[in-house]
Amino acid sequence: MTDAVAVVLRFAHILLGVMWLGAILFANFVLFPRLEKMQPPSRRDFFLTYTLPIYKYGEMAAAGTIVFGVLLYSYMFGIGAWVRGSTHSYLFVAALVLALVVWLLGLVVFFPKMKRARALLEAQTAPGPPPPEFQRIMASLPPISMLGMILLLTAFGIMIVAVTGFY
């Protein structure tokens, strides 16, 4: 019989991981390219309406993915499995470290830049193009998001290798 706790933990971990990666893919391949092409009034309204909720959705999914992943691994293999010294444990620790780096990149670098960009747009009272600082911030966000996507895809790949035993 399948262990119900393991099924629930695995389901939550995978679902939240897909949501997290989906948010990053959406930002890289839909959000940022479209924002660059929008006219200033539309870009301002779109940015103020949607970017913060999209980011919060991604960060919630990121935190949940990490928490449920740690719980799942610890439940299935025991708390000591993290430091057992096997290839399996090294792979999972590597994936966890990458996931934590991506999550922290969002919290420490990406989110403060988005908040600053938002504050600049909210402070702008006259119609017209956004301030130059906003443009600099917006130019810096896609490379940060792309780095996060590459690191997260690497973590996914490492987890797939660890789960399938392809090592």
Written overview of the protein:
The structure is a single chain. The protein has four helices and no strands. It is 85% helix and 0% strand. The mean pLDDT is 91. With 167 residues, the protein is mainly alpha-helical. The radius of gyration is 19 Å and the shape is elongated. The two termini are 28 Å apart. Helix 1 (4-37) packs antiparallel against helix 4 (132-164). It has helices spanning 4-37, 40-77, 87-123, 132-164.
The name CATH uses for the topology is Four Helix Bundle (Hemerythrin (Met), subunit A)
Oligomer: single chain
Major beta sheet summary: none
- Along the chain, the helix and strand elements come as HHHH
Tally of DSSP β-strands:
0
CATH architecture level-2 label: Up-down Bundle
**Class from helix and strand fractions:** mainly alpha
Uncertain stretches of 5 or more adjacent residues: none
Shape: elongated
Number of helices: 4
Amount of beta strand: under 5%
* Gyration radius, rounded: 19 Å
The end-to-end span amounts to 28 Å
Whole-number mean pLDDT: 91
> Share of helix among residues?
over 70%
| Count of the domains | 1
* CATH C-level: Mainly Alpha
Write the layout of secondary structure elements.
Elements: H1 4-37, H2 40-77, H3 87-123, H4 132-164
Name the features:
single chain, 167 residues, Four Helix Bundle (Hemerythrin (Met), subunit A), 4 helices, 85% helix, 0% strand
Briefly say what this structure is.
Helices cover 85% and strands 0% of the residues. By secondary structure, it is an all-alpha fold. Helix 1 packs antiparallel against helix 2 (40-77), helix 1 (4-37) packs antiparallel against helix 4 and helix 2 packs antiparallel against helix 3.
